Amino acid sequence: MCSSDLLGECVNRNDNRFSRLVAEQSDDRKVIEEIYLGCLGRMPTTKELSTIRLGEGSQRLEGAQDLAWALINSPAFLFNR
After folding, report:
1. By CB distance 3.0 to 4.6 Å, which of 48, 59, 73, 81 could disulfide with 55?
2. Is 12 exposed, middle or buried (0-12, 13-18, 19+ CB in 10 A)?
3. Residue 39 CB: number of other CB atoms within 10 A?
4. Which residues touch 42 (CB under 8 Å, ≥6 apart)?
5. Tens digits of per-residue pLDDT, 1-41?
6. pTM (2 decimals)?
């Protein structure tokens, strides 16, 4: 299995940190901040916070997973880790 397949599986699992975070935290801002801290080791900027929308209902988890996947594939993750 290549690393992108492994990462994708980890991000999309139903029992991972992201799914627990979305289930336990109703404030999207807090969810976004935790994902940024977990992936990039920093808080999101004001601009980043204002542009990210996780979605409603069942789409909220998918939005959180998409955000994590985007951050993991960002230059900031690749070069700052």
Report:
1. 59
2. middle
3. 20
4. 36
5. 445 555 555 555 666 788 899 999 999 999 999 999 988 99
6. 0.79
